[in-house]
Amino acid sequence: MTLLSRTAESLYWVGRYVERAENMARLLDTGKRMSAIPGDSAHQSEWEPILAAAGARQSYDALYPEINQRNVVDFLAHAPQNASSIASCIDRARDNARSMRTAFTIEMWEALNEFWLELRARPRVEPGSGRLAPFLDWVKRSCALFRGVADSTMLRNDSYDFLRLGMFIERADCTARLLDVKYYALLKPEDPVAGGVDIYQWTVVLRATSSLRAYNWVYGGGYEAANIVDFLILNPYSSRSLSYCMEKTTEHLNRLARLYAERHDAHEICGSIYAELTDSSIDSIFQGGLHEFLTRFIARNNWLSVQIARDYYFAPMAEIAAPAASDKSAQAPSNPPPAEQKIELKQGFGEGEAAVENQDRAAG
Predict the structure, then answer these.
(1) pLDDT tens-digit profile of 181-221?
(2) SS in 3 state form for the chain?
């Protein structure tokens, strides 16, 4: 049985929004831990790079007069004006789920709906109240509960593939942004590269990606930048690495290609991104610049998301702006399909999430 493209789009965005809610919690946890490091008060706030990593600085500046912990926590956790806040993400995930309840198992709906209800009932978190860390842990557990229920109750059909596509594309985006916060924005010029502050910051990144113990199993301790970057970018066994996320994205796109007997530009773009990761080494990444590598990855990952929306007839949207690249597989298609068509998924869909996503995340 094939899916309506409207249902496919809703499933894709439920996967992305639940994952993004967890990722906002991880970013806030990173900021909280980084701000605990004693430092020069004249230096920029550790919360400024968190906003930059979230791709939300411009929206933040329109709402708040200064950057501090209280305002950033409110903006990334609760603000309805921020489409990527934890509250907004769970609102949107539930709205999408409610629009296609028949594609959800009962257990999936109950897990998401109970998450939404409890989030609405909770008071806003005030920094310094002692409630921030427990709140962030609860958000991460609630997101993990939804994913676990989905994984244990869904049929392994195209519904499952679209849900997981959204999850892995969003997860790869978050890992790249967390790495960029550490390496590009937070290491002060006066800090020794292998000093105590630097090591602490790297352990914060590992904790933010729930990778500290897994990293120690692989490397036996020793928090060297090269090993941590290798673990979070190239290690195919690390569940939050870019390589693992692209491997799973490729797997689900290939399953859809077999199911619908058709390959699209998204398959070629994803294959190009995955090939670049598998062909890279830590030495080549550092030689070319870690920040530049991550910036390119984020741009191409966002481009892949836009192309998936086009290929599977999600909401009508503007022409794709492809990231700069020299290989043919990274060029935008010249003949986009009509806004409403059939994929064997039947019909197209009116207003959706992808155009909003392309605007909201571009700032990162």
Answers:
(1) 876 555 554 444 445 667 777 888 888 888 999 999 999 87
(2) CCCCHHHHHHHHHHHHHHHHHHHHHHHHHHHHHHHCCCCCCCCCCCHHHHHHHHCCHHHHHCCCCCCCHHHHHHHHHCCCCCCCCHHHHHHHHHHHHHHCHHHCCHHHHHHHHHHHHHHHHCCCCCCCCCCHHHHHHHHHHHHHHHHHHHHHHCCCCHHHHHHHHHHHHHHHHHHHHHHHHHHHHHCCCCCCCCCHHHHHHHHHHHHHCCCHHHHHHHHCCCCCHHHHHHHHHCCCCCCCCHHHHHHHHHHHHHHHHHHHCCCCHHHHHHHHHHHHHHHCCHHHHHHHCHHHHHHHHHHHHHHHHHHHHHHCCCCCCCCCCCCCCCCHHHCCCCCCCCCCCCCCCCCCCCCCCHHHHHHHHHCC
